[in-house]
Amino acid sequence: MFFLQKGLILLLVMGSSFLALTAMITDYWATIPSKSLHMGLFRICDQHKSCNSLVGTDNPKNLLIAVFVIGMFFLLPCGILEVWYARKGRLGTLLFVGAISCLQVILTFAGVVSGAVLISDFLKMEVFYFSWSFALGWISVIISAALVGLSFYINKVEPRSHSPTGTEGPVANETNREVQVAVIPVPETTVCDLPVQLNPSI
């Protein structure tokens, strides 16, 4: 039950985490066409792959690193366990996954926005365009938000219990509680109806 949906949750966890990491480590947050330059959160490079390190971008980098750590060490194990137990019943970690994913959305959003602000300030005298690394950051935000919604939805609709016969939920619980009582009629007898045996020795 809900095996495919929980498999999708696992894919969303991995997707959001790795996209945030890829956005952080790549050098294409912005491009400067007039000078053939491109830059990321770590460095700015020219077309000859000669790069200079950037300073002052620790805040967005730390936020996106936190997103990756949360995804790999908290959400990924929960997602694997949910998929593993999906055919056996309800594990009950989806509420935790949804709550932690909310934190992941906030951190990813803050990291992408703060990175965009820093790059815009650094290149305020240049004509530049945001590039695909920046887009990956926003895709990570969207995927994390989808993870929140799907986790809370499945947690709400998934039956609270699992029956070996395949019947789940409150109906199964009520059925299991039903007790059938068979009433066997017993004929009424009186003392007069009992056979009397006389003792000949009297």
Automatic annotation (TrEMBL):
<feature type="transmembrane region" description="Helical">
    <location>
        <begin position="131"/>
        <end position="154"/>
    </location>
</feature>
<feature type="transmembrane region" description="Helical">
    <location>
        <begin position="63"/>
        <end position="86"/>
    </location>
</feature>
<keyword id="KW-0812">Transmembrane</keyword>
<protein>
    <submittedName>
        <fullName>Uncharacterized protein LOC116412203</fullName>
    </submittedName>
</protein>
<feature type="transmembrane region" description="Helical">
    <location>
        <begin position="93"/>
        <end position="119"/>
    </location>
</feature>
<keyword id="KW-1133">Transmembrane helix</keyword>
<keyword id="KW-0472">Membrane</keyword>
<feature type="transmembrane region" description="Helical">
    <location>
        <begin position="7"/>
        <end position="30"/>
    </location>
</feature>
